[in-house]
Amino acid sequence: MALLKVKFDQKKRVKLAQGLWLMNWLSVLAGIIIFGLGLFLKIELRKRSDLMDNSESHFVPNSLIGMGVLSCVFNSLAGKICYDALDPAKYAKWKPWLKPYLAVCVLFNTVLFLVALCCFLLRGSLESTLAHGLKNGMKFYRDTDTPGRCFMKKTIDTLQIEFKCCGNNGFRDWFEIQWISNRYLDFSSKEVKDRIKSNVDGRYLVDGVPFSCCNPSSPRPCIQYQLTNNSAHYSYDHQTEELNLWVRGCRAALLSYYSNLMNSVGAVTLLVWLFEVTITIGLRYLHTALEGVANPEDPECESEGWLLEKSIPETWKAFLESVKKLGKGNQVEAEGVDAGQAPEAG
User: Fold this and answer.
1) What does the pLDDT read at residue 34?
2) Does the record bear Membrane in its keywords (predicted)?
3) Would you give the DSSP letter of residue 307?
4) Top-confidence residue, 119 or 93
5) Is the Cβ–Cβ distance between 103 and 26 less than 8 Å?
């Protein structure tokens, strides 16, 4: 028994074809939007690739770009099919290809749904990528004279100002690395020598942060150095003066930015997926309604359209049987090839 059977007369078939034609061209616009979102996401990831351990995954933006292009192609073709469906002579050339085309549409919708899910699941991989990338980037902050790293100081300063953040997890991360280049240290100074000797790795560590960590909203002039020394500043307590600097770490700031971006892209992709599924269902009804016309010479006659020719369990059973037959056919062909090679070997 057919699933979700609907009766169609000539008027209903024409309205269905016209509605699907319009929906397909709207879906072409949706495909352009998906393409644009994928391109925008790829650019945003490229912008800060130096702070992502150079291992950020471009699978999601590349997939969105590809699905956007395919959406434009498939829906343009479907629009042409729906337009020709109004003319029996033109529709005849599409008739043998419509069922394979519907199968491709089902596959396309499945992949589009998976890409939408990946948009929501990208947060986990981004979190670890950002943690390692920012940590390495901060180590290269001082290498302004080293080819290939001279831009890192500007990149991190711009990031901290733009996202109102400081360090990887917080401003205290700067206390653990030497972010001032040896070029700007006076090695004849006793203080510099003592600091370097007091460190096992021979690094110049200070309880200070770069200028880009300063919060301009703070009423007090920014305190960058000797942050943990209360006696170095008048009326100062480092336990309560943290608002003088950005408190949030850049990893959390970037993760929040990209998560919101990915959630928005995923939501739009899901809406487009629902629209594509609706179009595929409509095409299936149009296909079966036109196939069910008893007398092609009488276009006014009624016909029946359905979503599945059989019930869901029967359709699934038939699918499994066809897969088994296909597997057996391949096995027989393989045995035939082996049997043909055995006499030659003898």
Assistant:
1) 95
2) yes
3) S
4) 119
5) no
Give the up-direction half-sphere exposure of residue 177: CA atoms within 13 A in the CB hemisphere: 20
CA dist list (Å): 129 to 9, 37, 136, 248, 251:
58, 22, 11, 18, 10
| Overall average pLDDT of the 302-323 stretch | 64
Rounded-to-integer distance, Cα 223 and Cα 244, Å: 7
What dihedral angle (degrees, nearest 10) is formed by the CA atoms of 256, 258, 259, 263? 140
Alpha-carbon distance values, 237 to 111, 224, 228 (Å): 56, 14, 8
Residue found under tokens 């001032």: 180
> Would you place residue 56 in the very low, low, confident or very high pLDDT band (cuts 50, 70, 90)?
low
Helices (H), the chain: 10-47, 59-84, 88-121, 123-139, 152-162, 190-197, 250-291, 312-345
Distances from the Cα of 109 to the Cα of 67, 72, 204, 284, angstroms:
10, 13, 57, 14
The single residue listed with the structure tokens 């901290």 is: 160
CA distance 274 to 6: 21
Instruction: Place 346 in a pLDDT band, splitting at 50, 70 and 90.
Output: very low
Band (221; pLDDT cuts 50, 70, 90):
confident
User: Which candidate, 323, 273, 320, 286, places its Cα nearest to that of 101?
Assistant: 286
Q: How far apart are CA 75 and CA 254, in angstroms?
A: 36
Residues 6+ apart with CB under 8 A from 56: 45, 49, 125, 126, 129, 133
State the sign of the Cα–Cα–Cα–Cα dihedral 188, 190, 191, 192. positive
d(CA 109, CA 121): 19
Q: How far is CA 5 from CA 8, 161, 162, 285, 294, in A?
A: 10, 61, 58, 9, 16
Question: Structural domain boundaries of the chain?
Answer: 3-137+252-309, 171-247
pLDDT interval class at 66 (50, 70, 90):
very high
Give the pTM.
0.79
| pLDDT tens-digit series, residues 243-280 | 688 889 999 999 999 999 999 999 999 999 999 999 99
Provide the residue type at 302 as one letter: E
